[in-house]
Write a structure and sequence with these properties.
There is one protein chain. By secondary structure, this protein is mainly alpha-helical. It has a single domain, classed as Growth Hormone, Chain: A, CATH 1.20.1250.20. It contains 17 helices and two strands. It is globular.
Length: 446
Amino acid sequence: MKSKKNSKFWLTLVIFSLVGQIAWVVENMYFNVFIYKMFNASAKDISMMVALSAISATLTTIFIGALSDKLGKRKIFMSLGYILWGISILSFALIRKDIISNVFGAAVNSATVGVNLVIIMDCVMTFFGSTANDACYNAWLTDSTDSTNRGKAEGINSMMPLIAILAVFGGFMGFDLDKSSSWTWIYIIIGAVVLLIGVVGFFIIDEANVKTEDDLSYFKTILYGFRPSVIKKEKKLYFTLIAFVIFNISIQVFMPYLIIYYEKTLGMANYVLIMAPAIILAAVFTALFSKQYDKRGFDVVFIPLALITLGYIMLFLFPFVIKTEGVFNTILVFVGSCLMLSGFLSGMAIFGAKVRDETPLNMAGRFQGLRIVGQVLIPGVVGPFIGAQVLKNAEMIVNSDGTESFLPNNNIFLVALIVMLVLVCLIVVYKKVFKKESKENKTEEL
């Protein structure tokens, strides 16, 4: 029997997911651009920032997720978390070279201080964001859905990262990102919106019905998902998480450098006009395709993997095949980006739904830490590190102020492709192992 959700649930899902993802887009894609443009950050700086943010997100989700389980509360963490998240984003408006020079003195290297301040404040912002979104919003979504509507809900939820990218791209089009004043307004606007949604949450969120059936201490609740006995009992969940790790490593090899690659390496000042329709098509595809999970299960994952693989191949081969400039180049980049984004978005939906399906009932909070390990921590450390190694000898350009910056190259898509092929092999093994185990269990029952 299919469970129906009321309009209030869908409103909460859309608003909290979309605004949360807009904030994460600013962090995951535009903090890189921010320190690259404002403080001449290197690939190593960007890799370090992504890695430390991933560690912060994971630790926060593990501790706060377990706490929300013990208290049986999600709403207060979501609403208050979004308010503090918004305030932390507002603080980035103060990280400017002129302010740094006034505070620390003209003798200080404002670029170095700026990079360090952004990295530190990124971790602070991530703490509040992961409390509100990674730990408690995601636990609330798991608690509030079941196997009859999880694919649809996860489809909408997984659309939001790219819709957020589209919203941010569109919103940023009117700003000159080479000017510090533009970044000041961006942080003020995004921070205020996130803060406002936190206030709205107190009025629209229906508290999830969380019934903790064990009497574990808080410390034991934190460690619950890391117990060997739990891993053995929930093998499908952990195998899914391993696959999710590899999927996200592939994404993180190129994602921190994607905008810089389009704008600086390919020289596409109008990259927003290419990405926007690609994102819209990917979002529509995901909304329609994700419902197949509710009907056909995890087997549909091979379609997103095929799409993203084709996208990688096109984006890697493009510079070798085409040597001219013009509309044809733009079309090839658009098609490759559209395939890659469609596979990425729909793949996130399928993996997200599978993880929620395999999560034990009333234990969503304590397992959000494991989800974030697979989605953020390991990929956020390993993926950008691999990307930075690939770009170690990348071409350098001299900026107008005499400083140097690196140019990402298409090799990041080749390495991302290799990682994705490893994932395909793993999922084939996954299906064989659990199919064999299922047959053995049925034989034992007989």
